[in-house]
Amino acid sequence: MEGPGPVTTQPDLLYSEEEEALRSAVRDLLADHCDAPGVIARTESDAPHDLAAWKALADGMGLAGLLVPEAQGGQGATHREAAVVLEELGRAVAPVPYLTSAVVATEALLACGTEDLLAELASGRRIGALAVSLHIAAGGAYKVVRHEDGSLHGELTGIADAVAADVLLVPADDGGLYAVDAAAATVTPQVSLDLTRPLATVTLDGAPGRLLGDAEPAVRRALRSGAGLLASEQLGIADWTLTETVRYLKERKQFNRSVGGFQALKHRLAQLWLEVVSLRAAARNAADALASGESETETAVAVAVAQAYAASVAVHAAEEALQLHAGIGMTWEHPVHLYLKRAKADSLAYGTAGAHRAALAELVDLQAP
């Protein structure tokens, strides 16, 4: 007789009690550190990152090390817990380098097995940034710098949160991934649509670099995790904009009745609610696939599905919020523009929805005619 077939486990899309407790703690912290007027004020300054909030998250709560095993100085948690943190950061459009340092740079270091740098990023003592343009998807072609006589030469553009980084993880033409002290590079801010996650150009002119390992597998792993958990940030954006729009429409009166009672607006909000609920399922599935260590193909499918859907929902929710807040939504003082800009920028981050749909078609062998 043949033995039983392979056992497959169904993804758990529900939040555990521990995850809900983590959400509550992060939301309380962000309420103290990332109120809307403060975030808006930072976008108008030359210091867009809220390093006090980052210190509270990374040092005070230990959240920068969620993905790092305890033996390497981290919390030994999973992508599910990191996803909950990113939902809350998305809800607050918090200007902190969590996704870029605690997820993307950390995943690259985990692939290379660099324990000392991992411990520093996990503790929050240093901030890391992978020097690959924000729009690059996992498996996509990315620009490299020249490695010559032990030093690095070249220019890389579109590097998210590089202005806040202490260490840059730089891919070179010899196939290696190098750690470069940010002080040894020239980091020039670029004009960014999303002022809460600024981009920069990194120029290396003979900067010394420490070889960490092979760039290709490290970058692929980092960008895949970045894309998968970005969906949770997009969920947070969509959920906040929907919730605030519903609240505003209940309060706003026209013809002596609540605007939210008009049938046409009810239909728009109901449609948006369905989209947000579907996004929650897709984002949770991606986080669970990354956390459970499924096969590379299954994880890639889950991430591609989430990113093929997340961008349009987050942008739609933010656009509806702007429209339905009417004149007040068009003002700089109201935070809804921050959410729309973040949603628009996220729609290009770690690959567009179209790129992920194309990848998904190839993964499931469903090619276009």
Structure description:
The structure is a single chain. The longest helix is centred in the middle third of the chain and has 37 residues. β2 and β3 form a beta hairpin. This protein has 12 helices and 10 strands. The radius of gyration is 21 Å and the shape is globular. The N terminus is likely disordered. The strands form 3 sheets. The chain has a 4-stranded mixed β-sheet with strand order 1-4-5-8. A 4-stranded antiparallel β-sheet has the order 2-3-7-6, with no helix packed on it. The protein is an alpha+beta fold and 369 residues long. Helices cover 53% and strands 14% of the residues. α1 runs antiparallel to α3 and α9 runs antiparallel to α12.
Layout of helices and strands, plus pairs?
Elements: H1 17-33, H2 36-43, H3 51-60, H4 79-91, H5 98-112, H6 115-123, E1 128-130, E2 146-148, E3 151-160, E4 167-171, E5 176-181, E6 186-189, E7 199-208, E8 210-214, H7 215-251, E9 253-254, E10 257-258, H8 263-292, H9 296-324, H10 326-329, H11 336-346, H12 353-363
Parallel strand pairs: 1-4
Antiparallel strand pairs: 2-3, 3-7, 4-5, 5-8, 6-7, 9-10
Short description:
The chain has 369 residues and is of the alpha+beta class. The strands form 3 sheets. Strands 1-4-5-8 form a 4-stranded mixed β-sheet. It has a 4-stranded antiparallel β-sheet with strand order 2-3-7-6, with no helix packed on it.
